[in-house]
Please model this.
Amino acid sequence: MQTVEFRIGTRGSPLALAQAGETRGELCRTLSLPEDGVEIVPIRTTGDRIADRPLAELGGKGLFTKEIDEALLAGRVDLAVHSAKDLETRLADGVIIAACLKREDPRDAFLSPVAASLTDLPTGATIGTSSLRRRALALHHRPDLKVVPMRGNVETRLAKLDAGEADATLLAQAGLARLNLANRATMLINLDDWLPAVGQGAVALTVRHDDRRVLEAVAKVDHPPTSIALAAERAFLAVLDGSCQTPIGGLARLDDGELAFRGIIIKPDGSVAHRVAKSGPVADARQIGRQAGEDLARRGGADFFAI
Model:
């Protein structure tokens, strides 16, 4: 019987399992391991169990990571695979982001059976989302829209849209692509108009900070441009204390040794938005992100996110 070299902790949703499978494939290919040398361990999280209430009411992103962190710290799994946008701003003590897979398309997709774009939706149309960022951006562009809660995994939200629970919805194109559902997108929203969640499209691998064996292994599957961009984005988020309760978007891009960052904060009702753009050497990625966050924190003020 093949010895299991690594156990991957993950949520049990189809998208999470697809990301874990992609990670297993990269580890097996890079480390010359047979597929059964890497085991995928699905872990049901609080966020998965409670699917009928907005995340902001329940406590935010940690609902999708708590049980996985516990399994990692207890040694029941060796590494964990997450959608980077689902990670808390401050990770659990003893847990670090050790690597990222190559980022997928970071854009949000607009999906609707009745309109070709957000602009084309009829006056007063309903858009289903439980993301405060997407809600705030939608209302910023179209104050007349009615936003209704829509939670669940990708397939669940697509089914709700097909059942007519809303005229449109918004999903990460990366998730659609990883589930071979990219053709469900009506259109992809231009990044100039609509910044994604921090980390959107990236798959992050978390590891115990002192587990040298696993740290060395996952370093071999890391995609440095994605990890550098994510470091800048998370430094931005940390300044603003971003969570599921704060409408924040941010994206870093690398080009020929330079990092360009753009960020946005939006009032929850969409009425006001502040944007920032900063750039500099890749080596200063975290500093660039922090400075962008500090700029928006000054401009927004202490109670900017209050409704």
About this structure: The chain has a mean pLDDT of 92. The CA atoms of residues 116 and 207 lie 42 Å apart.
